[in-house]
Structure formats: C-alpha cells, structure tokens
From TrEMBL:
The keyword Repeat does not apply. GO terms for molecular function: transmembrane transporter activity. The chain crosses the membrane at residues 20-40, 247-267, 288-318, 338-359, 401-425, 867-889, 925-947. This is ABC3 transporter permease C-terminal domain-containing protein. Belongs to the ABC-4 integral membrane protein family. It is found in: Cell membrane. Keywords: Cell membrane, Membrane, Plasmid, Transmembrane, Transmembrane helix. Pfam families: FtsX. It is a multi-pass membrane protein. Residues 248-358 form the ABC3 transporter permease C-terminal domain. Its main location: membrane. It comes from Lachnospira eligens (strain ATCC 27750 / DSM 3376 / VPI C15-48 / C15-B4). GO terms for cellular component: plasma membrane. The keyword Transmembrane helix applies.
Length: 950
C-alpha cells in the first residue's frame, strides 16, 4: 500500500512540476542564503591561512644539507607530508659587495608550494638564461627588465624571468636560490652545493601547538643549525569570533526556517482540495500525513540541493576571482557546513509539518460565516478604490493588522541596526586613525658609537680642560701622536649600548613599498626620517655619563635586547600639530621659524644604562650633529661592510687611477698632489711649518714659497739626500687629509642647533611621539627636516672638496631618503592576518619595527562584531521582509484569482485590475517606507505578470 501511495505522490508531483518549481523558488533562495553565510564563516579562516601561505610558503619545516639524502627522522615522521626540494650550487656578491645571493634550482613542487610566481617572463630553458626574484634583482643591481644581460661570476646570462620576491620574505629566505638557472647549468657552475628540503604538514593536524611539533622534529633529527620552522604561517592564529559566528548561524537558520516553513505551509494550503479528494477516495489520516510529508521532504530536499549548489558555485566563482587577482586558493566545504545544512533541513521539515497541523486545527475552530456591510456605493470613479478595499477586508482584520505590525517591526529593526553600524564605524575611525606599525631600516653592518676630540686644541672632560701634553700622560693607548700630524684625534668607544644601525643613506626600495601596498588589509603608508648612527657633542659633555662608561681601546661589545641607543633623532616637517606639541614641552620657548630652519630643537633626555642622567645636557647648549664616520679612511676592516663606506670605496676606485683599496698608498698621494693648487699647498704648509723645524725639508719649502721651484719640483725634491725623496708629496697628501677631511669629519659638526629645552623622557612622551621616534635613545632629538638636510649637504660638500670633485655621483650622495615607515591598516586587517604578514615581512626585509596593532585590533574586533551582528541582522530583516511580502502578495493573488477573472469577464480593464491589486501593496509598503520604491517595483512586476496570465 505504501509503495502505491509513494508512486501516486510522485506522479502527482510530476504532473504539477511547474507549479512546484514556482513554490520552490523562495525555498531555494532561503537555502542559498543560509548555505552562503555558513560557507563564508567556514572559509574566512581558510582565506587567512591561504593568504599567509601565499606570502610565506606552504611548508612546515625546512632544512639544508650538504648531502643529497633526506634526514630519516624528518622524512619518516608521522606529522610531515610531502617533501619539496631546491638546491644552491654557488653564490654571487650583491651590488654592495657585502652579502651573497644564492644561485641554484627549484623543483616544480617547491615553486608551487611557495606560491612563487613569475611577475613576467619565463623560467630558464637554456643554460645562458636566468630567472631572478625581484628582491635579488634589486640587490644585484644589473638589470631591470626581461632581456637584460646579467653577469654572474664573470659569466653572462640573459634575464628571462622576474619572480615575485621571496628571499626577503620567507624565514631564512636569503639561503634560498634567488637566481634560478637550468639543472644542467647548475651542475656546470657548482662549487658549493647545498640541498634544501621543505616538508608540508599532514592535513589531519589542525589547531595544534605547531612550534612544539617543529621543535621536537628538530631535536629528533639532531639538527642544531640549518633547520627552519615556518613560524610566519603556523604561529599565527586565524581570525574567529565564536560568539558572533554562533549568533549569526542561529539567526540566519531561524530566518531560513521561517521563510521555508511559511512557503511550505502556503504550498500545503494549495493542496487542500487534493487532500479532500484523496480522503473521499478512502485514504486514512495516516496516509494523508504520509503523502503530505513525502511531498514536503521532496520539495525541501531538492531545494536544499539546488540552494547548496548555487551557494557553493558562487563560492567557487568568488574564489576563482580572488585566485586570479590575488593568487590565493582557499575554498572548501567541510563538515561544519554540511552538518548545519542538514540540521536546517530537518528542522524546516518538522516546523513546516507542525505549522500545517496547527493551521488546520485553528482554521477548523475559527471557521464561521462572515458578512460585510459596505456603506459606499461603487461608481466608475470609485471602482478601483472600493474594489481594492473589499479585497483587503476579505483577508480579515487580524491578518491585516499582523502584516502591518510585521512591516513596522522589520523597519524598526533595520533602522536600529543601521544606526548601530554607523555609530560603531565612526568610533572605529575616531580611535584607529594612527599607524598600526612603525618600522625603520637598519644597516646590515651597524656602527659602534664614537666621540672624537682634537688633541692640539683641548679635551673637555668632567669640566676640566687638558692640554695635549696632559692628555698624553693621563690617557694611554690613544693613537700615536705623529710629529707630522697637525691634528691628533682621540676617539672614544662606548660599551653596553645598542649599535647605531639607522642612517640616511638608502631610501626604502620600491620593491618593499609595492609588496607592502599589495598586502591585504594595508590602508595607507607614510614615511619619515629617523636615525641612530649620527653622534652628537656639546660643550661640557660628560663622557662618563654617556652610555655606560667609555672604552679608550676599540671595543665592539654593543647591541643586545636590554640595551638602547645613545643618540637618536627624528626629523619632521614643521607642521602645526607637531610644533605645538614640542612647544608645549619647551614651555612655549620654541620659535617656529627657528624650528623650521633647523636652528632650534627639543632634546628628550633619558637615563643611561647605569640609571644616571647626564647633567651636562642643559637648556641652551649648542648641539653639534657630526658627520657619519668614514671608517675606510682609517682602513678598519672590521666595519668594511658598511654600505656607505662601500659606496665611498667605489667612488675612490672610479676617481683615482690605480686605487689599491687603501687610503695610505701612492695612488692617493699622486691624486691629491696632482689636483691640489699652489694656494692650497701654501695654506696647509704654513700651518705645518709652525710646529716642525726640520731644516732640510723646510729649506725646500721656502724655495717653493719664494717661487724658486715649481710644485712639481717641490713634490719630487730630494736634493742630495735620497732619504727625503718625495717627502713633501707624503706631507702634502697627509696634511690635506687632516686639514680638509679628517678635521671636518671628526671635529667640525655637519650641522649645529640650539637645544631650547631638555625634557626628561616619560611614558607619556614615548606614547606621544611613538609614531615619530620608534625607539628613544639616551639623547633623542626632534628637529625639522631642514636640520637633517643641512647635515647631509655638509657631508656631501666635504667629500667633494677632499676629492676635488664638482659633483658626486648619485650612488654616493647622501639624500633626504625616508627610512622610517608608518603603516596604517583598514578594518579588513583583523580578518586578513595583515599584522602577521607585515611584521614578518619587515623583519625579513631588514627593518626594526614596533607594532601597535593589538590595541587597535580590539576596536576592530568590536567594530566587526557590531557590523556583523547588526549588519547581518539588518540585511536579514530586509531580505525577510521582501521575501515575506512577496509570499503574501503571491498568496493574496492566488486567493483573488476567481474574483479577478470575474471582473475581467464582466468588462474590467486589465490596467484597472493591476491598480486594484497595487492599492493594497502601496498601503502595506508605507509601513517600511525606506524600502517602498523597491517593494512597489517588485509588486508591480508580479501583479502585471499575474494579471497578464489570466
């Protein structure tokens, strides 16, 4: 019997297929809506993880080995998955000649795993071709576009491809091959092979303590070095709001069930006559219920499948678009969504069935005859209005009231949600208008601080002035006081402080800026000027209170997390807000024009590492900003990696024929003596003659001064004593260095400024200026950009004068290059792992940084929670209202069908019928007036279509 009933039910469904499809439309939309929200919740976390992996690679651990075999412990570990390989075979120096760029190959799996994509060009096919990542190409400094010739270790290659940067992004990225050649070419040029093995994480591991797993892997493998854990990806906790997610799911599910139940109830009403006929033919109550339930389950199941398919297909399309533009794949359908869709389906069937039973019971209890008394007489003019009122009254007072109350409630909910969204977003804008992260470029070879004094003048120490003779007795281990030196310079190195690792030499590269701008969640990037490498002096400086004591012998005991800079400076544009803040701390004594021109500054004083303030730093002192030290001039190889010094060395190579890499060589002497003028020789040797009395060489100088011998004869003079051959050549070149370079470099400031006020550093001050001064030193200056400009111009002029140059090449010029970067995130950063990506990238790209994102994320979280809670609720209210209004109109038209046909058959125009039906639509839409235009448009389309089909 049941099989026959089922067959009968499905035959009926087949005959009414078109009508069923019309009834399913709203049910499909409801399931699409619910499924879409669930998929969004599930895949938001997947998107964050995928975006992280795009930046930092989809590998878990990676190690490097000289052996072409895998480590057995890592290979066979149950947590490690697929292995991907790369290989470096040799290296090439970058353009600064400081660090190496690795050359090698990568497997296709390694490239795919790391989302290493070509910006343009192709991977190498021939042995004379090379593909290079953007960062390595910039460091190499030899080419910028496809087809350029690149020289690597005396062999020329054609640049065939440029890849997105990874060597300055990944953990230990500099150890990866940044220059890719063919396998055959790699074998040909191999001099030092290193095999790189990168392992994925097994997919069954989720939300684990990944760092502990990686540490156990390292210990079990016995690898102390050359082992890297992808912390950028696996130490990041994806966005998730369990409370908001649960609220949204419950709310959306209730909305969906309400819409589905109403539509199924309306469908069941259309089947009342059929059920009555079936009952008359002998079907019992159980069979009627079974057939009704079967039809409902069939309609809901098909609707759920279609809605699920539409939502899933839309998700795949959105992911495809994101993948196309962002190269991120993340979409998946997990148990989270499937279980909740099934749960929604089951509840919807149950509620629909119960709603049908309750509706039938209420209808039977309240069924009675109703009569209507109409006072108005229908005329041609009042035909539309009167007929519309009669139609409306036929629905009953209770239903009309409920519909109006429902409309008003939805309108109030929508307005309240919109207001709360606006309030939340305005509060977010008010609090989060400052940068989220502040970073500054640091040098690969930082400088140790030094302060210099001129022996021949005086040394100020503890307020006492020492003569050169007293200094020789009191301070041993200083530079030898040569009789040929007009200026004897004493240098002081400070211990137990951070290196001065930030200076104004290079700007932030376009590669870095472009990468940062393309990180999802980054809203704005501004730049500024911050330095710690420049030393300051002032009259009366107490060197014992600078840093933590002084070392007269050279020392490199510096750096460390618990130490700090001695000198720091932030240079700002003289804008009104920053000037007003500084002037407040200066007690109103900071002159705006003086601040703008760089002649006045404010100094913020902190304690040294011993907890002592320097009382020699006082209001009104003249602060001297000294030149960056040129270590090459003293031929100190331990700091030869300095990029500025390397540029200077390059300048000397290009300027001086036969330059030998040292300053005290014949090529330097010949160059100076060739370019120096007679007037300059006379000026420097007159000073020299005051302190030297060698009769023989002075006799030669007197002859030159009297005009008896030429400059060339002076330089080559030897007389009868070959010992003095060329002595004046050495004296002139040495004195030129001391008088025109050494003296000005170490003793004459690059710029001077007045300290208007010395303010002791407090937490309030650090908070106030944290976006200008990333790290406060013991002495921190805030001055205008003009002050920095003066100092940089002074050092450029100094080098030009010393080397007799009219202009410096661009690579040697100190410029106003921003080296501080302030990055502001947008609201989406909370769900896009922005701070994790930016922080990791800045660290890999050579920036020190401080993130303030956590404190702002709290506001973002609250804002997102508000937007999601109120926004989803408001959107759902609008969707529910439009859907319910559409359902109500559809049901109303179906109830009016016979009466409308009667009116048409008795001569009523179809346009009049449309106006009659729209009369009630207009009246109902006024209760949600914001949506009135849209609702009326939908109603008009439905009514016209319905009337046209009659």
């Amino acid at each position: 019997m049941n099989s026959k009933i089922i067959a009968l039910t499905f035959r009926g469904l087949r005959r009414r297929f078109k009508n069923i499809l019309r009834s399913m439309v709203l049910v499909v939309l409801a399931f699409t809506f619910v499924t879409g929200v669930l998929l969004l919740q599930e895949n938001m976390s997947n998107w964050q993880k995928a975006d992280n992996k795009k930046h930092f690679g989809d590998w878990f651990v990676m190690y490097r080995s000289k052996q072409p075999e895998e480590n057995e412990s890592i290979k066979n570990h149950p947590y490690t998955g697929n292995v991907y390989t790369a290989k470096t075979v040799t290296s090439v120096k970058d353009r600064t000649n400081l660090s190496d760029i690795m050359i090698g190959t990568m497997s296709d799996g390694f490239i795919s795993m790391g989302s290493i994509a070509l910006e343009k060009g192709k991977m190498p096919d021939n042995d004379n071709e090379a593909a290079i990542d953007r960062n390595s190409l910039i460091r190499l400094g030899q080419g910028t576009d496809i087809g350029d010739n690149i020289t690597l270790n005396d062999k020329e290659y054609t640049l065939c491809g440029i890849m997105n940067s990874y060597t300055n992004v990944w953990n230990d990225g500099k150890k990866l091959p940044g220059i890719i050649v063919t396998e055959n070419e790699a074998d040909n040029i191999a001099t030092d092979e290193t095999y790189i093995y990168a392992y994925s994480l097994q997919s069954f591991l989720d939300e684990q303590d990944y760092s502990s797993i990686a540490e156990n892997l390292r210990k079990e493998s016995g690898l102390k070095f050359n082992f890297t854990y992808n912390s950028n990806v696996y130490d990041y906790k994806p966005w998730g709001y369990a409370k908001v997610n649960n609220y949204i799911y419950v709310f959306i599910m209730l909305v969906g069930i309400t819409i589905i139940s109403y539509q199924i109830t309306m469908y069941n009403k259309t089947r009342k006559n059929v059920r009555f006929i079936q009952k008359c033919l002998g079907a019992d109550k159980g069979q009627i219920i079974f057939m009704t339930l079967t039809e409902n389950i069939f309609i809901l199941s098909i609707s759920a499948v279609i809605g699920f398919g539409i939502a899933s297909g839309t998700g795949y399309v959105i992911q495809a678009l994101i993948k196309y533009f962002k190269n991120v794949s993340f979409f998946s359908i997990g148990q989270y969504t499937l279980i909740r869709i099934i749960l929604t389906l089951v509840i919807a069937v149950a509620v629909s069935f119960l709603a049908g039973i309750i509706t039938d019971r209420l209808s039977s209890l309240n069924r009675k005859k109703r009569t209507y008394n109409f006072k108005n007489v229908m005329t041609e003019k009042t035909f539309v209005k009167t007929t519309a009122k009669r139609f409306k009254w036929s629905d009953g007072c209770f239903q009309n009231i409920v519909i109006r109350v429902f409309s008003l409630a939805m309108a109030v909910i929508t307005v309240v949600c919109a207001i709360n969204c606006i309030i939340a977003y305005r509060e977010y804008l008010r609090i989060t208008d400052k940068p989220d992260i502040v970073g500054y470029a640091v040098k690969e070879t930082p400088r140790s601080y030094t302060v210099y004094y001129d022996y021949t003048a005086s040394l100020v120490k503890k307020g006492d002035v020492y003569t050169a003779e007293q200094i020789e007795k009191k301070i041993p281990d200083t530079w030898e006081y040569s009789p040929f030196q007009n200026h004897s310079i004493s240098e002081y190195y400070f211990n137990d402080v951070k290196f001065g690792d930030s200076c104004m030499y290079r700007n932030i590269s376009d590669d870095v800026l472009n990468y940062l701008k393309n990180i999802d969640g980054v809203d704005d990037i501004t730049m500024g000027y911050y330095e710690t490498a420049r030393t300051f002096t002032w009259t009366g400086i107490n060197t014992d209170n600078v840093g933590n004591g002084i070392s007269l012998a050279r020392s490199l005991k510096s750096g460390g997390a618990d130490k700090k800079y001695i000198f720091a400076a932030g240079y700002v544009e003289p804008e009104e807000d920053i000037y007003n803040s500084l002037n407040d701390y200066a007690g109103g004594n900071l002159d705006y024009d003086g601040f703008k021109e760089g002649s006045e500054v404010v100094v913020f004083l902190d304690v040294n590492n011993s907890g002592v303030y320097d009382d020699s730093m006082k209001d009104g002192v003249t602060l001297k900003l000294h030149n960056y030290e040129m270590v090459l001039e003293r031929n100190d190889s331990y700091e030869s990696g300095d990029e500025y010094i390397n540029a200077y060395n390059k300048l000397l190579e290009e300027t001086i024929d036969g330059y030998e890499g040292q300053t005290d060589t014949q090529s330097i002497k010949d160059y100076i003596c060739k370019n120096i003028t007679d007037q300059q020789i006379t000026e420097i040797l007159d000073v020299y003659a005051e302190t030297h009395d060698n009769a023989y060489i002075m006799n030669i100088y007197n002859q030159y001064k009297a005009g008896d011998i030429s400059k060339e004869q002076l330089l080559d003079a030897s007389g009868s004593d070959e010992y003095y051959s060329g002595v004046w050549r050495s004296i002139i070149s040495q004195e030129w260095w001391y008088s025109q370079y050494g003296f000005y470099t170490y003793l004459v400031p690059a710029a001077s400024t007045k300290v208007v006020k010395v303010v002791k550093v407090t937490d309030e001050i650090k908070e106030k200026f944290k976006y200008i001064i990333p790290e406060f030193g013991q002495y921190t200056v805030i001055g205008s950009t003009q002050l920095l400009h003066n100092a940089l111009d002074s050092q450029n002029e100094l080098i030009k004068k010393y080397l007799f140059l009219d202009e410096l090449p661009d690579y040697m010029k100190l410029k106003m290059n921003p080296n501080r970067i302030n990055i502001k995130y947008n609201l989406g950063s909370s769900v896009m792992a922005t701070d994790n990506v930016v922080s990791s990238y800045l660290g890999s790209a050579g920036f020190a940084y401080t993130s303030y994102s956590d404190e702002k994320n709290q506001m973002r979280h609250k804002t997102i929670e508000a937007l999601m809670t109120y926004g989803i609720t408001g959107i759902a209210a609008i969707v529910i209202y439009l859907m319910v209004s559409t359902i109500i109109l559809k049901g109303r038209l179906e109830r009016y069908t016979e009466r409308i046909k009667l009116l048409i058959n008795t001569g009523a125009e179809r346009d009049k019928i449309v106006m009659i039906c729209m009369y009630e639509c207009i009246w109902q839409s006024m209760w949600f007036i914001v949506l009135m235009p849209l609702e009326l448009l939908i109603c008009l389309v439905m009514v016209r279509r319905f009337v046209k089909q009659l």
